[in-house]
Amino acid sequence: MKTLDSFDNHIEFKGPARTWSLIFIAIGVVGIAYGFLSGTNTERTFANLLLMGYYFTCVCICGIFFCAVQYVAQAGWSASVIRIPQAIARILPYAATILFIIICAGLFVTHTGVNEEGKKTVMPYLYKLWALDGVATKGTPNYDSVIAAKAGYLNIKFFLARIIFYLVSYSVLGWLLVKYSNNEDELGGMHNYNKSFKISVLFLLIFGFTVPLFAFDTIMSIDAHWFSTMFGWYNFAALWVSGLSTITLVIILLKQKGHLEWITTDHLHNFGQLIFGFSIFWTYLWFSQFLLTWYANLPEEAAYFYKRWEPEFKPWFWLNIVINFVTPLFVLMSRDSKRMMKVLKVVCIILICGHWLDYWQMIMPGAVGSQSDWFMEIGPIEISIFLGFVGLFIAAVLTSLSRFKSLAPVNHPFLQESLHHHI
Amino acid sequence: MSKTKYILGLFADPDEMMHGIDKLQQNSIPIYDVYTPMPIHGIDHKLGLKDSRLGYAAFMFGCLGGSTIFSMAYYMLVRDWPMDIGGKPSFAIPDFVPITFEWTVLFTAFGMVATFFYATHLFPGRAPRVMELRATDDRFVIAIDAKGNVPHEDITKILKDAGAVEVKHNDRKYVSYE
Predict the structure, then answer these.
(1) I need a labelling partner for A167 at 20 to 30 A (CA). Which of A97, A182, B74, B157 fits?
(2) Residue A30 domain-assigned?
(3) How many domains does chain A have?
(4) Which chain B residues are closer than 8 Å to A333 by Cβ?
């Protein structure tokens, strides 16, 4: 095997990638403007912004999680690919800011709408079940006994404090991981690797306890009357699969442009295995949540799935499980398909869209409700906002990557092991 | 005509054994098999071994397990003795999923073990066939079929030059029968 000594492979954010990302961002801006200005679609636009803000943040968190898992496991194979998740991790502060602005706007911009009981009331565009005035005060028209019982936890101040805590702690720890890795490039030695290990342990500890709460707060509280203890881990599985697919797709696209020549089929094979395995894990959690609810058939639990079995949502509900389970199961099962870059690329794109659909069907039935027909559920607003965030992601990741001096951590203690990785 | 059936080159070090394989291949001497106490990275590729087909067996056993239990559950719960459980339909597919999954895993696991035993002639209660006992301990062994091969002294010399600590000319293929 040829030994690489030079990692001077540098990425500039220019050319077609820049053009396309700007086009996508423009499409997204037009979509948002259309959504807000067309009159009846404001709530739907807010829900879509929340969806993509959450998705974007989750992918960035997954970048940190990937790095942290590799450091804590002292994994060797991933040393030469670690710059890609690091680049994604580094844009978390921006993604988190966008998500936070969307959440605040959704909470504090109000309109007069019709609530679940058919009464007219002033409600916010997001979290309309619990972020109302007087929802926990007995005697007021907005009083809701279920929400009142949860109000000790689910109130706007504590909610925002928690969101800030999650996002700031993840961002700081992710920033530290990238900083130590850059210092390692400059100085060499084991000092920075050991510090990265400690920070990774701390991150996993905080992440493990707070990621279910993060999902509960941002997504599950849309359907605030309902709860599921599986929901947090179900969202974690979606985060991990969609994040892995994104990391793999970025690597494949960069490889196809002639960068990252040291990343071999064997590294991609590992990513394929992770995507395959965690798609099964996602299905396992999806099904565990579904089976218990279906079997017990308690009204307060079944309400969630009842909404998703309305004719407007049912086709998407089943499409979700087909895309995210059946596709990776049959396409990625054999060893050869994990080693074929083009197959893996297609699977990654399918899974990224698939988990968009997954998040979509967690949010839309509760936040917006049904449209006139099932095929009207996904329209120009959904697609343009998705594309807008894709463009934003491309621009952010490529800018972030171009800030690295080299695309491999040259003084990483496991770099040689990774370069000779063979399975 | 010598009675030697197999020539074994015993190496004390895996790198020297890999070197020995190179030397034999450079001299176009076909290698019968290689026995090592631990997995050696990249040796399959070097010996030109085909990929294991155990995965196909596993897949077939998985399909067998899944279809067996699904039809069994269908017969028991839908055809033979339908019961009203919580008002659910008798043919409640979501309920069948966990057991179908479990049996798929069970059949795959046991089927793979059985296939492995079958392919390697390992059966409980039977002494395994071994060409060199120390290959399970501290020797890395290259076995060469002696029949029709170039003069045995040449092979011995090649193995010795490559670093073999011992070269055996065995009249029997296996040293351990029952």
Answers:
(1) A182
(2) no
(3) 1
(4) 59
- On whether residue A18 sits in a domain, the answer given is no
- Confirm if A225 and A129 have CB atoms less than 8 A apart: yes
What's chain B's average pLDDT? 89
- Residue in chain B closest to A293 (alpha carbons) equals B94
Contacts of A15 (CB under 8 A, 6+ apart): none
A126 neighbors A49 (Cβ within 8 angstroms): no
Could you tell me how many CB contacts below 8 A there are between chain A and chain B?
20
Contact A231, A215 (CB under 8 A): yes
Domain boundaries, chain B: 6-50+129-170, 54-120
Q: State whether B51 and A335 contact (CB < 8 Å).
A: yes
**What H or E segment, with its residue span, contains residue B102?**
helix B93-120
Does the distance separating the beta carbons of A422 and B86 come in below 8 Å? no
Write the CA distances from A185 to A172, A221, A421, integer angstroms.
20, 43, 21
Residues A219/A41, Cβ–Cβ less than 8 Å: no
In a domain, A342, yes or no: yes
One of 1.10.760, 1.10.260, 2.40.128, 3.30.70 is the CATH number of B6-50+129-170, namely: 3.30.70
* ipTM of predicted complex: 0.81
Query: Does residue A228 belong to any structural domain of this protein?
Result: yes
Contact A291 B88 (CB under 8 A): no
pLDDT at A15: 85
Task: Determine the Cα–Cα distance for residues B130 and B177; give it in Å rounded to an integer.
Answer: 8
Taking the model in full, what pTM does it have?
A: 0.90
**Å from A314 to nearest chain B CA?**
16
- Residue A406 belongs to what H/E stretch? none
Contacts of A395 (CB under 8 A, 6+ apart): A13, A18, A21, A22, A25
Q: Is A232 within 8 Å of A215 (Cβ atoms)?
A: yes
Q: What is the mean pLDDT of chain A?
A: 92
What is the domain extent for residue A125?
Answer: 39-408
How many whole angstroms separate alpha carbon A299 and alpha carbon A186? 60
